[in-house]
Structure formats: structure tokens, C-alpha cells
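@channel sequence for tomorrow's demo:
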Amino acid sequence: MPVLSARDGTRLAYRVVGRQDDGASGEPLLCVPGGPMRASSYLGDLGGLSGRRRLVMLDLRGTGESGRPVDPATYRCDRQVDDVEALREHLGLERVDLLAHSAGGDLAILYAVRHPERVRSLILVAGRARALGVDFTVEHRREAMELRKGEPWFEPGRAAFEAVLAGSASEADWEAVVPFFYGRWDAAALAHAKSELAETNERAAELYASPEAFEPAVARRAVAGLDARVLVLAGELDGGPLPRVAVDIAAAFPAGTAVVQPGAGHFPWLDDPRWFVEAVAGFLDRAGGD
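C-alpha cells (generated this afternoon):
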């Protein structure tokens, strides 16, 4: 994996997926993983999006092939904005198309707040927006869960979810709630879920969304003047965020649009790769990324 040095000297690694001679076109798409603090490998090739755009996938500090920082306080997502900027500079790009998944949404939003002139387009895939004062709730999770009543794993999964909330969850309970995050609970989803623990820096995840990282009022004022086009893509079956919450997130941006992928959960590129790729690549084409 190619590497660069962050401003504090931490070694950052990134994956490049897709080549122009394979059909990928335009500027590279910078991808920020979620988790939080999960190695970028779980993104795969984003359902084949690498055939339409060259993907540059950053391993956040302390994850995947990137080094661990001397100061653990730099795991806080606002402190990692400098890492995204270091990657942009390393690649020699004037402006970037930036895609973020899940908890990576907070980091991408904070990057747009601090470097609005560097963002050409922003794509939040099942993205969190605590940076803007928007987040999912327990009731949002319950609402999404009810959509899965026809699934054979629904009843044990719902009971396990309540055990998690009560603080009495066993390892089996944690495993039982995982299917709710996928639109299709099949062998591919199971394999994807099983890799999460090994790919996640749990200590870093605890620090990533520290309250001090966010100033929602400041961020909202900043993004209200952002001229970049923004896509917020939500899964129909996802509770974090619910589709209507995704609409609220998109409304914070002057050129924000929300789309809902039918039958998708929190990892929509796995549930229907073709739909996902067409939605994201089409948005990039319209945003002038080529």
C-alpha cells in the first residue's frame, strides 16, 4: 500500500482501487471509512464503483496498514481532518470528490467545514452527522427494526437489541443484532460482518466522537455557504440514519440531495451493487467530477 506522512509524523496508508484502463474515469474519489475506526478494507471496491472511478481509500490512523500515533488524542475525528488534507496534498489535487461511510460522515463534514474550497462534491453513504447536531436515536433503531418482521431472525434479534440497551448483552446477543445492519442477511453479509472486530481499533473508536470534536452551530453556519454538491444516500431499511433523517442532513447543505436505496441496510453497496454504483457514479457525473 502507498503511504504518506501526516503532519505529526504518523504514517498513513491508503489503497488505490480501479485503474483508468479498466474504465475508471475522471478525478479519483477519496473514500473515508466508518466503523468508527475500521480499516478501509471493509469497503471492498464499493460494489464495483471502482469500474467507474478510481478509488483512493484511506486507512485512518491506527487502523489497517496505517501507523498508530504517539498521541492517542489525535484519534478524535476533528483532529483527523489534517490527515485527509495531507492525503489531498500528497495526491496533488486542487479539489476533491469525497465519499464517507457511516461514522466517516462526521470526518468528511468537518473537512468540508475547514476546507470548503477544496471540496468539489461530497457523498455521505449511511453517513452520521453529529458534526451538524444530527444523529440517530434508539427509537430510530426500533423503527427500522420493525421493517424486518418477516425475517426468520427478527424475534431473537429484537430481544438481543433490548439486552444491548439494558447493558446485559452476551456475545450471542451482539451477534444476533448484526443482521439488522444488512438488507440481505446472506453468506456475503455474514463474511463481511465477521471481519469487523479484526478490522477495528476499539480504543481509537472510543475517542473518535468525543463531544469536544463537535461544534454543531459553527458547522451548520459553515456548510450553509458550501458550494459543493452533496449526496446523502440512505438505505431503506437502515436505522442510522433513517431515510427521513438523511433528508434532514441533506437539507443542511445548499446543494444537498438525499436518495434512498430500496431494500438496503447500512452497507448498501453489498445489498444491490448495481443500484448503488449507478446512484453514486451518476451523481458524480452530474456534479462535474469528470
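heads up for whoever presents: The CA atoms of residues 261 and 275 lie 7 Å apart.
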